[in-house]
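Need residues for this backbone.
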């Protein structure tokens, strides 16, 4: 007789229900609060579709963001202190409950971090926030009481709207955190001084809310394990704060950081998975109430480990679920290879370049109501010929194949990935390549014919008999010395062997010397120059970065988040930064430049010079095919658009159109 087989449920630790107060959450997978920039449900269904897509595919608990508690808070917050919010809450609740998920609301006053319409901002003390820059007013007792009442009203409205619980935002440098941190609370009254004094405001909010909503409505707090401010709140103090409040709440959610170091609050790919663990674990392990861990958890495998090891009872997966709403379903069905990876650039979800949530790797994010991840099959199946195996071409081929077309893709190089494969060679940027690897794997799964080392000309295209041709041939670094700020005055001396492109640096930095002194000229203000500078430093060169812009990564969306970590590393490594400048000429052993719109000139020693400039779209094949009675689509860098977000969005759009 065969021995009895023990079948382990995949990620079984995550799929145990848990009680948060009176609410039963079906699993341990949380999607914590985050800004979306989407309109409230009174004027659009976009917010409902966005959250419902994550609920439908398995997240047990979702948090709604930006629930303002008082008119003195940020003007962009939803006014949860106003009963007019209740009907919209009911619509959200109905949508979440239809999928067996619960939705809690994070109630928040942002204090001096994001001032409201009144002036000055309100805070614990008259200490200006480094992001907002406004000097706040130290709140009086009457102001404090008014805000406490606002928290109460916001929670009552949440309860009346049929949502399932509330989370008081006591972290991330917002108002309550400004009272908790000794760096921002310099008060001498009962709300300052000792830990008990600094915690008084939080306790008053918790007790007032609990009295109002009763014991049948889940109530928790969100707090930073440390606020990353010199002389501020550290993990030991946070642990003491949690000890003071845990018998008053139903759960505690802990993450890290504040607006003083925004890139630690929402980390990019440079940070390892679950990087907050050393700070968070001492705060949350062994608590008497359920705890939620946050900190760049991107996979169910990592989340399962956190729960199984006893660090926390639940785990928040935010950007992983932004990138792929089906992450939970696919992973539990052992289809992890099909999960679209978050690569951690923060350029879409945090940067929100168009004012609303987006995702570098998933163009459907925030547009789920009219752009579902799985489009309808094409009415007529066609033969699609894609030229270029970078992110734009890969996405066009993937989407066309999903819709049922016969697709062939040709790439001139020996590997797929295009410029993404080059960028992934930069120090601490290897995650960048995960998206094009996923796209390539998906093409293989979908049966797309892929040919590498295939130089395409018009004869090959015409001989294929394709119904439509997609040109995704990318762009090449310019070698003519062009700089955007001086379009009629190219850099003199550009054609020297020691003047190289970013691609040459990123392809060789780990095994090549670039001399004692290297100069990087940054004409674009994007991440390329930061990667090149870091690679040169790690190769042993002293680096001067001369930029046409006013800051490192100035043209990145929300550079505090997207460039902050790199800025710190580069400055710590001794980078010399020269803003608002241009290059005039490259001489023997040095470069000569100037400051924009002045007569000032400077000379910088340089053994190697790297020009990080605007690229030249590769449109030769497209030009030849024009007028050949073909359906022709030019996308990605070949069209002049020059970001990964745009490239994948272009590929997605044309794939849906074909």
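Answer:
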């Amino acid at each position: 007789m065969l021995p009895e087989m023990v079948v382990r449920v995949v990620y079984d630790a995550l799929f145990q229900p848990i009680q948060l107060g009176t609410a039963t959450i079906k699993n341990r997978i949380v999607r914590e609060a985050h800004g979306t920039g989407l309109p409230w449900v009174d004027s659009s269904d976009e917010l409902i579709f966005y959250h419902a897509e994550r609920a439908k595919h398995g997240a047990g608990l979702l948090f709604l963001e930006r629930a303002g508690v008082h008119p003195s808070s940020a003007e962009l917050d939803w006014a949860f202190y106003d009963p007019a919010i209740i009907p919209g809450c009911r619509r959200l609740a109905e949508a979440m409950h239809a999928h067996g998920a619960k939705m809690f609301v994070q109630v928040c006053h942002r204090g001096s971090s994001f001032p409201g319409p009144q002036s000055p901002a309100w805070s614990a003390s008259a200490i200006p926030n480094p992001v907002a820059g406004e000097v706040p007013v130290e709140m009086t007792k009457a102001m404090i009481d008014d805000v406490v009442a606002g928290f109460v009203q916001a929670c009552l409205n949440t309860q009346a709207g049929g949502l399932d619980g509330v989370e008081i935002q006591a972290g991330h440098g917002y108002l309550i955190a400004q009272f908790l941190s000794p760096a921002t609370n310099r008060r001498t009254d009962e709300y300052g001084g000792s830990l008990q004094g600094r915690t008084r405001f939080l306790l008053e909010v918790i007790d007032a809310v609990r009295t109002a909503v009763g014991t049948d409505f889940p109530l928790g707090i969100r707090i930073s394990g440390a606020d990353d401010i010199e002389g501020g709140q550290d993990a030991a103090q946070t642990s003491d704060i949690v000890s003071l409040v845990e018998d008053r709440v139903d759960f505690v959610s802990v993450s890290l950081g504040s607006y003083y170091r925004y890139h630690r609050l929402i980390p990019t790919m440079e940070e390892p998975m679950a990087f907050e663990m050393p700070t968070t674990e001492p705060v949350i392990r062994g608590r008497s109430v359920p705890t939620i861990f946050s900190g760049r958890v991107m996979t169910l495998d990592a989340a399962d480990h956190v729960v199984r090891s006893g660090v926390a009872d639940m785990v928040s997966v935010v950007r992983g679920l932004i990138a792929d709403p089906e992450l939970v379903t696919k992973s539990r069905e052992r289809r992890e290879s099909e999960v679209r990876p978050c690569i951690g650039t923060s350029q879409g979800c945090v940067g929100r370049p168009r004012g609303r949530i987006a995702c570098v790797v998933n163009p459907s994010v925030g547009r789920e109501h009219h752009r579902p991840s799985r489009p309808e099959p094409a009415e007529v199946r066609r033969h699609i010929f894609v030229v270029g195996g970078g992110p734009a071409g890969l996405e066009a081929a993937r989407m066309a194949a999903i819709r049922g077309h016969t697709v062939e893709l040709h790439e001139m190089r020996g590997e797929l990935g295009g410029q993404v494969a080059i960028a992934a060679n930069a120090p601490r940027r290897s995650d960048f390549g995960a998206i094009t690897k996923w796209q390539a794997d998906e093409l293989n799964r979908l049966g797309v014919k892929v040919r590498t080392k295939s130089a395409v000309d018009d004869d090959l295209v015409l001989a294929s008999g394709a119904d439509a041709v997609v040109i995704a041939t990318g762009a090449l670094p310019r070698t003519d010395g062009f700089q955007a700020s001086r379009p009629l005055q190219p850099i003199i001396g550009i054609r020297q062997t020691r003047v190289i492109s970013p691609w040459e640096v990123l392809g060789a930095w780990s095994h090549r010397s670039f001399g004692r002194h290297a100069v990087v000229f940054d004409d674009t203000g994007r991440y390329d120059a930061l990667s090149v500078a870091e690679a040169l430093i790690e190769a042993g060169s002293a680096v001067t970065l001369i930029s046409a812009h006013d800051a490192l990564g100035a043209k990145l969306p929300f550079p505090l988040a997207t460039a902050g970590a790199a800025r710190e590393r580069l400055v710590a490594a001794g980078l010399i930064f020269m803003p608002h400048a241009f290059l005039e000429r490259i001489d023997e052993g040095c470069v000569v430049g100037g400051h924009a719109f002045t007569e000032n000139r400077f000379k910088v020693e340089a053994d190697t010079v790297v020009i990080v400039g605007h690229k030249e779209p590769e449109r030769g094949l497209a030009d030849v095919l024009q007028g050949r009675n073909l359906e022709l689509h030019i996308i990605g860098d070949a069209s002049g658009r020059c970001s990964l977000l745009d490239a994948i969005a272009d590929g997605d759009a044309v794939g849906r159109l074909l």
